[in-house]
Amino acid sequence: MNHQRHATRVSSEQPGEGRARSRWRAAGLAGAAGLALAAVAAGITVPGGDAVGRAAADDRLGKSKGTPVRCDTGRLIAEITRANAQGGAVLDLAAGCTYLLTADLDGAGLPAITTPITLNGGRNTTLKRSAAADEFRILSVEANGRLTLNHLTVTGGKISGDTDGGGILINPGGGATIKNSKIVENVSSEGDAGGIGNIGGSLHIEHSVVSRNAAANIGGGIFSIGAISIDKSRFEANTALTGGALTVSGHLTVTRSELVGHQAAEGGAIFVLGGVTGIIADTRFVRNTTTGAGGSAIAGVPLQLTVSRVTISNNTATGGGQGAVFLQGGALLVEDSALEDNVGVDGGGVHNFGTLTLLRTKVTGNQATESGGGIYNGASGSLTLLRAKVTENVAGIDGGGIFNEVGGTVDLSTATGTTVAKNRPDNCVNVPDCSG
What we know:
The chain is mostly beta strands. The chain contains four helices and 45 strands. The longest helix has 14 residues, at 73-86. 60% of the residues are buried.
């Protein structure tokens, strides 16, 4: 698959929509919403962050001081328009209300966010595109816009053509914070980012659900070029050609979250386009599937990515798919983690063409229909195991524990306590210091 276009394409669309696709040279901008949240805790004033900060403080206190918006879509549109004109606002939407969007306002059902605006919902507060309406996303955020969603469901967004973000689009210089919310059943039928497209902005998600979104190309749940952080959230059953849950280029942080039941041809849960730095910690990847190149849990070419205290289990790579973790290049450190009961063709647990270090990590119970039940190390791969355990993996041909192609390098570091044992039909192929 050719991913080159994601780093080079230039918009040719009409004004308004063009901002959605252009200027991908913008790298991860500082997350203004995150800065404002930190500032509230520290008592510091951040320019442009007042509305976001007030929302965070009110949320902690269990109350709001925003402007009430009755259950009327026209009133919500009017209040967002007023907030943009007046430099921002906190809007309290009606609990139990579905704001049904029927009109396309420059590509979205609601006015574009151009200032700091917080939308507070309540139990069963929903922003939804009418099924009878033309295709459009729910929300877009422009440069200098800062959107915060609290206790809201965003659903039914649908876009087609060469554009991103079926549910929400963050343009270069914009930012969004999504808290205690659901981004569900949004579609990019011909392009990228079924749920959320972050194209050169910043995105923070916490205590939220991103599920059942779909993209024809990349990023079923989210496609992010920029800074993205995810905490205590669940991604489930999103689909795409590449990166079922998430496709990312920029800075990535995922903590205390779950990615479950995704499907893609490459990168079942997460696909890394390249140049990514960051960390994935205290997170579970379960029952994700690839049907093409592989990487049912994680695939791609990170610049430097650290995976800590993560469980990757019961993921499946079929149709030629390679490993639950498919490192196509770059550098990956996996520490204090477990790769268990995954299935692939060459490499049940891992297929490595990059620089991979496994530190205090278990690779156990994985299966490969061909070679490398636990780990398949390619000709350009460099694999180091430190106090790691590769046990009880099974290969259909050979290299039950580790299969190393000629040209690849494997350092077992047995002096550190690395164990390769009880694999079938053998422990290793072409691996120095590994018996049988």
